[in-house]
Amino acid sequence: MPLPTPPTKVWTPRQHLAVGLQFGDLEIRSVLGVGGSAVTYRAVNVRTNHEAALKEYFPRRWAVRRSDGTVTAATAGFAPLFRAGLDRFITEAQILARFRAPGIVRVDRVFASMGTGYMLLAYVGGPTLAQWLELRRSPPSQAELDGFISSITSTLAMIHAAGILHCDIGPRNIMLADNGLPILIDFGSARFSMAQQSPEPAVLVTPNYSPQELYNSSGSQRGPWTDIYATAAVLHALLMGIPPPAAPERALGVQYVRLSADPRLQGYRSSFLSAVDWGLEFLPGRRPQSITQWLSAIHTPKSQSPTGLRV
Amino acid sequence: MTDSNALAVGTRLGEYVIESMLGSGGFGITYRALDTRLDTSVAIKEYFPANLAYRVGSTVAVRPDGIVGGYDWGMEKFLHEASALARLQHPNIVGVRRLFKANLTAYMVLDYIEGPNLKDWRRNHHNKPDQGELDQILIPLLNALELVHRKGLLHRDIAPKNVMIASTLMPILIDFGAARQLVAQHSQTFAALLTPGYAPFEQYVATSRNQGPWTDIYALSASIYEIVTGNLPPEAPERAVDDKCIPISELERGRYRAEFLSAIDYGLRPLPKDRPQSVADWRKAFVGAPKPVRQPVPAAVPATGRWWSGREKKN
């Protein structure tokens, strides 16, 4: 008996919401990005004509969209994960809402609709650091880096003081404001609680930026030094054009080449380079244990004008 | 069943009729089905990478935001590994009956194995397994694994849940890691598709470059460690930072053969180079052959920055 012949490939028109769709006073204008756990749209408030970013919880691995646009878990087995992730998404919005600071994307609303969750965020027009890095052909100056670093460290000091770790700092989660200063988006700790409950455990990390302790699924060994490593890896990418080797590669014997010993980086403050090396120590216990400790080693000159990278 | 991605119960695939879903993972869905001609149960594994595909009726389609090339490549890899598995023919490796393509995806028809997996077997077994039972389980698995490796394959996901215990304590390896590597490589954020606690270091690296027989040996050692001590060794990434793994030869001294225990510790060494390089090496350790001392880590090639390909440059 012959097997059924396969029909031609079927495609649904979209995995994201239709452009032009209206949600109360919001209208979807375009898709800004599709990530692993969310889709971000550019939306406009039709009453105020104000631009905003609308982030929709849509975990690709676990969710599907029905033809009417509503979202549901892809399989019954994924339903608990989908719900746990949705809870984390709401928590993430609540965390963001606690911090009204220039270095963290502003959240205005969070609401449930279409079977999933949405958060309304301030629209940041600038590129992500990943996009910026791709276009750059030369490293930023010490002054640009000092502005960048004093901004991101003060943001991190603030969230750490509130007992929160970002746990996923990397070029795709940093956007640049018009003045070139970093804005943290995507408080990815949500990922960790999901990874722990995955039926087929998945460790979700950003290779080359995630320190070794983010590769375990038990959640142990993490602390301020975890965000410090990732931030130092971002600085490494800014200085060298490439990030350091991935932590598991280092565990297998690939060596980290210290920036402070690189003659090509002579134009940079040596205390700064050594501090980046310090932040990139493989073992958590050998890294700076707090942002304050790290900052004192970086020696950022005071009286910095508030500018960061040249956008 | 309200599983929107799984085939509905009663769906016909040639002479097979889907009876239930046995499990779904990141890249495949496994069903129990009836072979209507042989009137016997079979297990059917369907290629279905959840992050790249979705279902329309019975047909699988690639998500518009997925990578079509990735889907097709993964399917080829699934078929390739399935046909390699079909050629293995070993009493302790699940038998492959057939491979076919339908619904724009691929299917592997396997023997349906009754009986608990090693995890449930241990749970139902009120005492610690004795040395005789462990030998009865481990020796056939070593033989099976040796054949797998001789054919140039790796299992990549050995864990008690993937060892079925048929009647008379016969272990059977199931769930080979077809297409596993690929899904990891095509994820934007690297998702290490592995089972924490059983997976060694080298599976956390985005490429399979450092993987080999020693990768399966680690996972099998961790499985034995768990069913004997009741605890899993700490996850490999934790061991890289601070190795708190207590050797089984300390924990179980006197209860099992000393060579047996130290061979398990040998298989659980963190670095790939320090472990037995082949099942043959490992087998010698079980009868007390000396184990090599740990080797120092090799020096690496220094990286050149994207902005610093030439000599010194000023910003």
Instruction: Walk across the major sheet of chain A and give the strand order.
Output: 1-2-3-4-8-7
Q: Biggest interface in this structure?
A: A-B, 75 and 71 residues
Q: What general outline of chain A do the C-alpha atoms trace? A: globular
Helix content of chain A: 25-40%
Extended strand count of chain A: 11
What can be said about the biggest beta sheet of chain B?
A: 6 strands, antiparallel
Number of helices, where a helix is a run of at least 4 consecutive DSSP H or I residues of chain B = 9
Task: Describe the main β-sheet of chain A briefly.
Answer: 6 strands, antiparallel
Average predicted local confidence, pLDDT of chain A: 85
Oligomer: heterodimer
**Which percent bin holds the helix content of chain B?**
25-40%
Taking all Cα atoms into account, the compactness measure Rg of chain A is: 21 Å
- The secondary-structure element order of chain A is EEEEEEHEEHHEEHEHHHH
Overall shape of chain B: globular
Order of helices and strands of chain B: EEEEEEHEEHHEEHEHHHHH
What are its keywords?
heterodimer, A: 311 residues, alpha+beta, six-stranded antiparallel beta sheet, two-stranded antiparallel sheet, 31% helix, disordered N terminus, B: 315 residues, 9 helices, globular, disordered C terminus
3D structure, described in words:
The complex is a heterodimer of chains A (311) and B (315). Chain A is α+β, with helices and mostly antiparallel strands and 311 residues long. In chain A, 31% of the residues lie in helices and 18% in strands. Chain A has helices at residues 79-98, 129-135, 142-161, 189-197, 224-240, 247-251, 270-279, 291-298; strands at 22-23, 26-34, 38-45, 50-57, 63-65, 71-73, 107-113, 116-122, 174-176, 182-184, 202-204. In chain A, a hairpin with a 5-residue loop joins strand 9 and strand 10. The N and C termini of chain A lie far apart (64 Å). Mean pLDDT of chain A is 85; it is low at 1-13 and 190-202. Chain B has helices at residues 68-86, 118-124, 131-150, 180-186, 213-229, 236-241, 248-251, 258-267, 279-286, and strands at residues 12-13, 16-24, 28-35, 40-47, 53-56, 59-62, 96-102, 105-111, 163-166, 170-173, 191-193. In chain B, helix 1 (68-86) packs antiparallel against helix 4 (180-186), helix 5 crosses helix 8 (258-267) and helix 8 packs antiparallel against helix 9. The N and C termini of chain B lie far apart (62 Å). Classes of the chains: A alpha+beta (311), B alpha+beta (315). The interface between A and B is large, with 75 and 71 residues. Strand 11 (202-204) of chain A pairs antiparallel with strand 11 of chain B, so a sheet runs across the interface.
